[in-house]
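Lab channel / #folding
Pinned by the channel admin:
"Please post every new chain as: sequence first, then the structure tokens as a reply. Keep commentary short and put observations after the output so the thread stays searchable."

First post following the new format, from NK:
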Amino acid sequence: MRETVTISIPEEIKKQLDKITVQEGTTRSSIIRESLRDYLFIRQFRALRKKMIEKSPRVYTDQDIFSNEDSL
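Reply from TO:
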């Protein structure tokens, strides 16, 4: 089931959003839905990572992971 949510955004963001819709051949709603899904996923990921860090004897940062993949 879908519901409508009304939001307000600054004019500059709307201009950028409209430009992207033309470039990608999609709709504002589609981009906003995808952005919200990404945000919610990242938020859940951070919450899970926080729980794991509390239980881990060694804390790895994102920089540790991406700069030293071979040494882990």
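NK: The mean pLDDT is 88.
TO: also worth noting, The chain has three helices and no strands.
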